[in-house]
Every structure is written in C-alpha cells, then in structure tokens.
C-alpha cells in the first residue's frame, strides 16, 4: 500500500492539474492507486480489468459480465466477457482510471478525454454493437498499448518521453486519432463489424474499382447489397445507399429513416462513397438512361438508336 501521506499528495496532484477535485464516484481507493502505481513502476502496461476496476470494486465483479459477438481468428464468435455490460458502466470505470492516471502523473486529462471521445464515436456509429466495442477496447488496452510503446521506443514521435511514455501511447491508440493504431481500428474493428462477415485479418481492403467482377445477377438491387470483400467473396453491407449516393431522403446528415449506417460502404470511413471513391464505385449505381441525339423514338436514323451513344456508355459504366 502507498503511505497515507503519498495518497494525499496524489489527490493534491490531481486537483493542481485539473483545478478541481474529482467527482466522488470517480475517486479511486488507496488500493486501486497502489496497484496502478505498482504496474507503472514495473514498466508493464497500465491495463486495469474493468471487470473489477469500479467504484464498488470486487464486490460487484461477478456481476460485470456481458455476452459479446467479437471478431477473433478471422471469424465472429460469441463469448461471455468479464466487463461492463453498458457504455455507462464502462465510462464510470474509465473515469476512475483517468483520475488515478492523472493523480500519478502518468497521463494528461486531454489524452484520456480523447480516448473517451473515440469510444463515444464508435458507440454513435454502432449503437447496437456494444459487445464488439468493449472487446476492441479490451484488446487495445491489454495488447495494443504494449505494441505502440515498442514502436515509440524504436522511433520516438515528437513529445514522446520514455520516462513517462503512457500519455503519448494512450493518445495514439484512441479511435479517430492519426498514428500507429488508426489502421488497426479500421482493419480489426470497423470493417469486420460493418461487413459482418468472415474476412481473414491479413487481407487488405481492395481499392475502388480494383478486383471487381461481373455478376450473373446484375440488377440494381443485387449490386446495392453486394461488395467484393478482400477474400474475393460477395458480402452484404449494411450501409445506406441513398446517403452514399447523396440522393433520396438521406441527402443531408439527418438520421437514416431506414436505420442504416451513414458511413462509407467501401472503407468504413466517415464520408460518402460517391464523393471519395467516385460514382462508379458507389453501390454500382444505375446511370440515367440516355436518349438519342434526336431525343425521340422512331424518327429516322437518329431514332433507331434512341438511347444514344451517351446512354450506352453510361449504362456500360454502371454495369462494370
């Protein structure tokens, strides 16, 4: 245990840095501060198990379980995980951890808030996927922090301090932040969760227009719900067609009336496919039917090709 005098100094450190004492529900116990300080002094990752790291501590540990469908070994599996069963419970544990890290001068409030903001963004994008989000956070804190620390020790970024490394590491691991973990979020969480299919973890995402193939069923409905995954299979994608095409009832940024995802169906990014990848990549959209140069059917040579060259070209582009 940390001596009581040191516990008091740690609490004063938090108040000096933030300008106010922590909320009562986020006040870490002496045991929690002592355990976290021991982790930091050992040089290991400051990972705390949110299954037991809570205001009530071990008393409620056996109740903090949730069933999650997670992406593991290239496939989705359902497991019961020890941990918060809701984002609100997770946020309470993170608040407790944040106060402890600031009190021990191991991380800054801004860095810890950026990680929390990334989790909120993920919950906004995938409101029904809390189990997957919590499982991804578990991997980041227990495994990815160590990998990022190794990378920073080999090639230190600006403002990285090897004597107090975790502020930079936690900041780089947050969802939405550029850095060594941004690609991990896309390939290990965003794409598998969006596609909801089995995709080998080593397979990259094909660029727009690359690796596409013509289907026997080339209808607009079939092409709307299909996407060529990295393993060459056609996979359903729960993204909003109108939003990606900037058309219909989802031209703006209002909530989707069909409860579909307003995110790019090709890469999972926060942009429309038609803007970022080109019109031919967005759901194989139907091109407008062209009319002949004469504009009407059945009048002379011009009327025989009533769709016109322009219409044929756009139809051919859409079919590919």
What does this 3D model show about the protein?
The protein has about 325 residues and is mainly alpha-helical. It contains twelve helices and two strands. The chain has helices spanning about 5-20, 30-40, 85-105, 110-125, 130-155, 165-175, 180-195, 220-225, 240-245, 275, 300-305, 310-320, and strands at about 65-70, 75-80. It has a two-stranded antiparallel ribbon with strand order 1-2. A hairpin with a 2-residue loop joins strand 1 (about 65-70) and strand 2 (about 75-80). Helix 1 (about 5-20) packs across helix 3.
Q: What is this entry, summarized?
A:
With 320 residues, the protein is mainly alpha-helical.
- What is the general shape? elongated
The amount of beta strand, in percent, is 5-15%
Overall structural class, as computed from helix and strand content, comes to mainly alpha
Rg over alpha carbons:
26 Å
Summed up, the helix count is 12
Q: Tell how many strands the DSSP assignment holds.
A: 2
Look at the structure and give the mean pLDDT.
Answer: 73
Low-pLDDT parts are 58-64, 197-237, 279-310, 314-320
Percent helix range? 40-55%
Supply the number of structural domains.
3
Query: End-to-end distance, in Å?
Result: 67 Å
Give me the oligomer status: single chain
Physical arrangement of strands within the biggest beta sheet: 1-2
Biggest sheet layout: 2 strands, antiparallel
Topology:
Blueprint: H1 4-18, H2 30-42, E1 65-72, E2 75-82, H3 87-103, H4 109-125, H5 130-154, H6 166-173, H7 182-195, H8 220-224, H9 241-245, H10 273-276, H11 300-304, H12 308-319
Antiparallel strand pairs: 1-2
Helix pairs in contact: 1-3, 3-4, 4-6, 5-6
